[in-house]
Amino acid sequence: MSYERDAIARMSGYTPGEQPARTVIAKLNTNENPYPPCAAVMDALRGIDGHALRRYPSAMADGFRAEAARLHGLTPDHIIATNGGDELLRLAITTFLEPGGPLGIAEPGYSLYPVLAAVNDSPLVRVPLADDWSTPDGIADRWNAAGARLAMLVNPHAPSGRLTPAAEIAAIARAFDGVLLLDEAYVDFIDPARGYDSIPLVRDLPNVLLLRTMSKGYSLAGLRYAYGIGAPDLVAPMLTKSKDSYNVDAVAQVLATASLKHRDEAARTWAAVRVERERLRAALVERGFDAPPSETNFLLAAVPGGNARAVYRALADSGIYVRWFDQDRLRDKLRISIGTPEENDALLAALDAIK
Ligand SMILES: *Cc1c(COP(=O)(O)O)cnc(C)c1O
């Protein structure tokens, strides 16, 4: 017999990208930053003493929140630190959605949203994205009509890399009768020339919660650290009631704070990724892939001939890992994280060797 709740027994879990144990030539399947965290972060790690581990950490990560607030020109009561972005997503559900209450999403999107909804016994209000992956008009009305009190959108979009302007997001949030969680996991890779700035949304709107993570831009996926940004009234219930008491550990708080302090160094990796992103995109297009522009650290590329799964397998056989999704609208495509120049060259060489 099983002791699981019905909702848990019914659901399937999240499928993480492979983390191959053997050394691979290029691991371009889970959108990690190809460059290591900056020297100041590694120095901070070496500087941690035993007493910092003996004591409980700051329950609300006060030092980190002060640093993040300074960076964004806000007060610390706009910030909540979490154990990865995934914890913020889960917290938003437990705080803003009744058990069983519907969750608004756009499809395709981040594959964790349906998993977290299932844990909460929440049906999904799925709105398909347009052919160019843009958000369709009236998306908030569709969520409202189904009674969704929380919705999740990823911007820049995963897995396409497309950026929705902040003004369009603001219009969706204004029309929506619930909390809009804007998942900005890849915000750091946006070309600064695009002028994207979502912080004003948080100042102007009571129902926008931004997700920022240290995993991608700051090369700290292994650390598990992210933060939410929202109006103080939106952040307070999560911060003071629904989160775990010590949800981010002492080591993570120190390293994440150092990382934000030395943001300029991470920003150099973002610029390098953008250069490679354009180079790789041009090289893929030259080889017959349909690879639209991306504002993230990955490309979504339709494989010439459409047999993306076979190409994915052939690449894995030659030690190059990319991501293939067995999902409508994605089966003919590969999601390729931007690697170092050497890794991207290895990918291109492997592609040229196939067929
Ligand atoms: C990586 C990612 C996150 C958060 O990841 P964490 O490592 O848990 O911070 C959130 N949303 C999307 C779309 C992502 O790709």
TrEMBL record:
Signal peptide: none
Sequence ranges assigned to domain Aminotransferase class I/classII large in this UniProt record: 26-351
Pfam families with a match to the protein in the record: Aminotran_1_2 (PF00155)
EC number annotated for this UniProt entry: 2.6.1.9
Catalysis: reaction(s): L-histidinol phosphate + 2-oxoglutarate = 3-(imidazol-4-yl)-2-oxopropyl phosphate + L-glutamate
GO biological process, one term: L-histidine biosynthetic process
A single GO molecular function term of this UniProt record: histidinol-phosphate transaminase activity
Entries under SUPFAM superfamilies matching the protein: PLP-dependent transferases
Statement: the UniProt record of this protein carries the keyword Amino-acid biosynthesis: yes
Domain of life: Bacteria
Keywords: Amino-acid biosynthesis, Aminotransferase, Histidine biosynthesis, Pyridoxal phosphate, Transferase
InterPro entries found in the cross-reference section: Aminotrans_II_pyridoxalP_BS, Aminotransferase_I/II_large, HisP_aminotrans, PyrdxlP-dep_Trfase, PyrdxlP-dep_Trfase_major, PyrdxlP-dep_Trfase_small
Residues carrying N6-(pyridoxal phosphate)lysine: K216
Cofactor(s) it depends on: pyridoxal 5'-phosphate
Pathway: Amino-acid biosynthesis; L-histidine biosynthesis; L-histidine from 5-phospho-alpha-D-ribose 1-diphosphate: step 7/9
Family the UniProt entry places it in: Belongs to the class-II pyridoxal-phosphate-dependent aminotransferase family. Histidinol-phosphate aminotransferase subfamily.
Summary of subunit composition and partner proteins: Homodimer.
Name of the molecule in the record: Histidinol-phosphate aminotransferase
Lineage, highest ranks first: Bacteria, Pseudomonadati, Pseudomonadota, Alphaproteobacteria, Rhodospirillales
